[in-house]
Amino acid sequence: MTAVRFLLNGRPCSEDGAPPSMTVLDWLRTRAHLTGTKEGCAEGDCGACTIVLGRRVDGSLRFQAVNSCLMMLPQIANCAVFTVEGLADGALHPVQQALVDADATQCGFCTPGFVMAMFAFHHGGEPPDDALIHEALAGNLCRCTGYRPIVAACRRIANGPADRFVAELPALADALSTLPPCTDYRQGPQTFLMPRSLDALFVAMAQFPDAILLAGGTDLGLRVSKDREALPAVIALEAVAELRRIQVDGGATEIGGAVTYTEALPDLDRHFPSFGSLVRRIGSRQIRNLGTIAGNLATASPIGDTIPCLIALDATVTLASRAGERVLPVESFITGYRKTGLAPGEIIAAIRIPLLAAGEDFAAYKVCKRFDQDISTVVAAFRLERQGGKVARLRAAYGGMAARALRAAGLEAAVRGRPWTPAWLADVEALLARDFVPITDHRGGAAYRLRAAAGLLRRFQLETSLVESMRVEAL
Question: Is residue 218 part of a domain?
């Protein structure tokens, strides 16, 4: 057994007696007695549990806000952990002072989480742009409805004066470099393994064939934070070097199985801007700093937001095991309600997404009750190729319309060769009704889902026609 070693508010810390499935939030509050970090929802929605992790990247530290309620203790191994108690040093930190000056705290329960989200924003070097501030704070809820002064305080510290941590970063990075890696943490009947290579991962999977594979934990974490499960064996994928790669070659971008949403976003923004915009609505920065596209794919939820995008883009998934690799279309990988084509001993090594050809259009849309961080009622993704003003090929994939994300095959066939104009959309509801028989639940009725699905296609037609008009005018 090895201990979990990390830096806690700048000081070396080691833990070898807590169960592996103890959440970081519980460890901070009950064992470190740092009770500024709060539990509000225990599912990564409210942000009251926000802490900041510093990880070594190219010899320096990168600060990221995360939800401590969704993380198991070994996940902070070899990290610099910052809580609200660690920011002030004789005087308030500039973020804390800005909140005071803006009169931005009411009951105060949510304030520590806002402080830490703003602390990460402060160190991100981002400008005081309202959209960026909204994005930085979207993972934190204030139930006293005090957002205006909180936003004002965040605006004050954007690109503000350097804090004491800027000078301390080299020393913190050096201190982290001296910590031995934690690859095997056990306590009682529980085991948490953190392999560093694919070979080591396959050895661990052979040793613990029933172990749960942990990518970001934004879904799995609920089993420990909400259900209080003592998971017998967990194998974390985060440190597997071969799963951390992003590369563009051969007309496609390939995203490794352990690449987080945050790490993938620059690549998505460059090649599929609408996909990037959708990812920003999947979850807050706290969620995106942990969660992975591969994890979203592996859960095979019928309302998993990335899956229709991957299907519409004709993406493939590379599955790896000790026996080698095989490649499946994402469309074939999802086999049913929360079911996939993963065989025993296999992992998602990478997702390969073909780039758009010149003149092709892609867009993704999401209908839900709340704009940020809400589960979809309907999610749609479309990839369109036109020739001479007519549809040469349309790939239309929907989530929330069936037991799994699916293409509207009948609709695709019916529109092939038609002019890309509003006229042919008159019968789109009838076409979709042949492809899908959606359910009725608390998020929306079947009729509503069909109308929403049709409306999203109409929106895509309108937007792409406007874009095409601007292209022609530019010529």
Answer: no
Q: Could you give the CA distance from residue 413 to residue 52 in angstroms, rounded to a whole number?
A: 49
H or E element: which one contains 247?
Answer: strand 246-249
Please, which residues bridge with residue 60 across strands? 57
Contact 422, 464 (CB under 8 A): no
DSSP string computed for 126-174: ----HHHHHHHHTT---TT--HHHHHHHHHHHTT----HHHHHHHHHHH
Strand partners, 444: 441
d(CA 378, CA 453): 7
Give, for 64, the enclosing helix (H) or strand (E): strand 60-67
| β-bridge pairing 316-321 and 347-354 | antiparallel
**Structure-block tokens of residue 441:** 């639940």
Residue 289 in any domain: the answer is yes
- Give pLDDT, residue 145: 77
Do residues 82 and 119 touch, judged by C-beta distance below 8 A?
yes
| Sign of the dihedral through C-alpha 287, 291, 296, 301 | negative
Token reading at 246? 């992003």
List Cβ neighbours of 277 (8 Å cut-off, separation of 6 or more). 364
Residues 4, 59: Cα–Cα separation, whole Å: 21
Domain count, the chain: 2
DSSP state of 283: S
Domain that holds residue 94: 4-177
Neighbours of 451 (CB within 10 A): 15
The pTM score is: 0.94
Beta carbons of 195 and 203 less than 8 angstroms apart:
yes
CATH code of residue 70: 3.10.20.30
- Which residues does the chain have with pLDDT short of 70? 1, 467-475
Identify the three-state secondary structure at position 51.
Answer: strand
Token pair 């095991």 in the structure block, residue: 321
| Whether 147 and 260 share a structural domain | no
Answer yes or no: are the C-beta atoms of 282 and 310 closer than 8 Å.
no
Closest CA to 137 of 162, 110, 164: 110
Residue 437 lies in a domain: yes
